[in-house]
Hints:
There is one protein chain. The chain is 79% helix and 0% strand. Residues 1-19 and 225-230 have low confidence and may be disordered. The chain has nine helices and no strands. It is mostly helical.
Amino acid sequence: MLKCLTAVFLMSPMAATAAEINMAEQFSEGGIALVVILLMSILLVAVSAERLVNFRTKTIFSDDLIARVKPLWLAGNFDKIHTLLELENNTLGRILNYLLCHRHQQVSVLALGASEIASLELRQHQQKAYALAIVATVAPIVGLLGTVIGMIEAFHVIAYSQGMGNPALLAGGISKALINTAAGLSVALPALAMHHFFKHRCVMYSLLLEQTINQSVNEWFASSNTDSFTNLKVVPHAN
């Protein structure tokens, strides 16, 4: 009994190594579908990294911008506000700059212009992440197609070789075919997760802009216009 356990223990690393080698061989023989899935995985990483860098809070919103602009606005120091906003490279700064340049318009007009600026920029940000939705949709289909093609090839080999007398030949072919499905799902799942992550972030920023602009401008224009600014609506494009 002890000899048997020792033999199993000694052979287990060799078995694991053999399994790893077979897995590598299966990936290498996966066919064109695995090449396509590999390219989509590169696209997934590239788009996710770009969005994580360029679609952050600082590109949409500045925490202390309203606090810096409000006293200048109430004091009527519009030149300083314009200089301050020119240095702000975010959506909120561009909205405030629009309100500053069109401050003599009706509040309803300002609301429409501000909502268009915010909605347009948020749609642009979300559109740049649309490739993630494509990867999440296409990758499992490509994997399934590779699996079907692999199964056809496996049964074709069985039909013209040893028949069902060698089940290992059939099992090996099916295993290589299923690699395509596994690879497709492995790429599709993180792509889908990242797509919904950025979509949620876009909605969160839109609500934040609505709340901040509505509250601030209702206060700033309260003395000069009786209209309400609460009709500002930021609607990001839904993918």
